Amino acid sequence: MIAIVIVTPKPVVNDPQGVTVKQGLASLGFSEVSDVRIGKYIELKLEESSEHAARERVEAMCRQLLANHVIEDFRFDIVRDGRR
Amino acid sequence: MIAIVIVTPKPVVNDPQGVTVKQGLASLGFSEVSDVRIGKYIELKLEESSEHAARERVEAMCRQLLANHVIEDFRFDIVRDGRR
User: Fold this and answer.
1) Are the Cβ atoms of A24 and B60 closer than 8 angstroms?
2) Structural domains of chain A in order of their starting residue, each with its CATH number
3) Are A43 and B32 within 8 A, CB to CB?
């Protein structure tokens, strides 16, 4: 089973990486980009048979390690096969 | 218009960040995780009226700046509203 986790900075938190990428895009002529936010994409391969159990485990992983809940939000999807 | 870009290391490329996260998860008791791959999640806000034009521009951004095509793959979706 594969879990796709997306961790993003909370909307109120500064995202200097996003600002830098926005400036880089503007200097390449992509001035139509008005905002950039950058987060993490995490793909986990799990040995877990039930989707319900996988969901609980991945939620615990996010809370304990993958996301910093003070400054980041997370969301995830469980998929049965890879889609890389 | 919002573009969601996912940049991932190519399957043949080492992902030391993923290995470290896998070890961290194992040491927290999440031993069911057999593989972790980490990529970037990029959300772009675009002043572009047509989805077709947006798609071409975002593809160009990925090729020129957002992804390193030697070691990374990218894919993206265009969505009309935010879904952060």
Assistant:
1) no
2) 2-79 (3.30.1280.10)
3) no
Whether A48 has its CB under 8 Å from any CB of chain B: the answer is yes
Q: Provide the β-strand partners of residue A36.
A: B44
Q: Which residues pair with B77 in a beta bridge?
A: B4
Mark yes or no for CB contact B44/A64 under 8 Å: no
Calpha distance A20→A41 (Å, rounded) = 19
The whole-angstrom separation of Cα A74 and Cα A3 is 12
Query: Each residue of A23-76: pLDDT tens digit?
Result: 999 999 999 999 999 999 999 999 988 999 999 999 999 999 999 999 999 999
Residue B4 at interface with chain A, using a CB cutoff of 8 Å:
no
Identify whether the C-beta of residue B32 lies closer than 8 Å to the C-beta of residue A57: yes
Report ipTM for this prediction: 0.90
A37 in reach of chain B (CB within 8 A) = yes
What span, in angstroms and rounded, lies between the C-alpha atoms of A35 and B43? 8
